Amino acid sequence: MPLVYCGACSHAPGITGRAERADTQTRQALESAFRRMGDDIRATRPDALVVIAAEHFANFFMNNMPAFAIGMADSYEGPIEDEAFLRIRRTTVPGNKALSRRLIENVMQTVDVAYAEEWKFDHGISVPLHFLTPDYDLPIVPANINCQGPPLAPLSRAWAFGEALRRAADSGPERIALIGAGGLSHWPATPDSGKINQEWDREFLRRWSANDREALLSYTDAETYREAGQGGFEIRTFIAAAAAAKGAKGTVDFCEPVPIFAVSCTLGSFQLPVA
């Protein structure tokens, strides 16, 4: 069954943890955009949602840091952060071990991917799910791209990972939705936290919406670090989603800089053929 939904969104912890400190109108518009994305995903009647995220040393650390990983379990738990900080209640999130295994085996044909039978979600997955699947009734297949601990996989490999996930999703009978979850320019846990390069973000999203592979892969890590901070390395999740869209064009449904959230909060989706 062809992929039924493909998009990307922000996952900043401040979206839930510091919600009341943001401009009220902007916050409400952001939350409405998340709800619309959730409605759009449910309208495609998916059997599972693949979330390509960039986790933050919650499961993978410098002693064992895979470039790419996919979860393979019937359930997961999250968030791993303190509930009072993130303001999301820790819960069990359903998975689908058999489906994950089939996806992993297919992805392995072209991309060397690790798998994990235990996975505790951090805000990188928990924040999007809080809005997109608030009842936690949709099986999740978590995927991770190392965007935190260099050396990082080249952008071309993130693209290949997205292509492999699309091929794997298309090869089975299940209806699969997919999102990338990450940030654009941001400088987390530094004195520059709250700084946002809006011009850089807008140009990236222009390339992303056009699904311009050559332009998306032309960024270097040195340029990204200089213009978008170390948080900008998370564009790999957006790039993987673009690759999974298989040439479809995208629409940016929401993008507003929210300094207290330390990022331009962004949601977008690709116009896939109706399945």
Structure characterization notes:
This protein has 275 residues and is an alpha/beta fold. It has one domain (5-270): LigB-like (Protocatechuate 4,5-dioxygenase, Chain B, 3-Layer(aba) Sandwich), CATH 3.40.830. The chain contains 10 helices and 10 strands. The protein has helices spanning 14-17, 24-43, 83-86, 97-107, 123-132, 155-170, 198-210, 213-216, 221-228, 235-244; strands at 5-9, 48-53, 68-71, 75-78, 91-94, 114-116, 140-145, 176-181, 250-258, 263-270. Helix 4 crosses helix 6 and helix 6 (155-170) crosses helix 10 (235-244). The longest helix is centred in the first third of the chain and has 20 residues, at 24-43. The protein is globular, with a radius of gyration of 17 Å. The model has no long low-confidence stretch (mean pLDDT 96).
CATH H-level superfamily title: LigB-like
CATH topology term: Protocatechuate 4,5-dioxygenase, Chain B
- Total strand segments: 10
Low-confidence stretches: none
How much is the radius of gyration in Å?
17 Å
Shape estimate? globular
Give me the side-by-side strand order of the main sheet: 6-3-7-2-8-1-10-9
Helical residue percent band: 25-40%
Measured distance between first and last alpha carbons = 8 Å
Instruction: Kindly estimate the percentage of residues that lie in beta strands according to DSSP.
Output: 15-25%
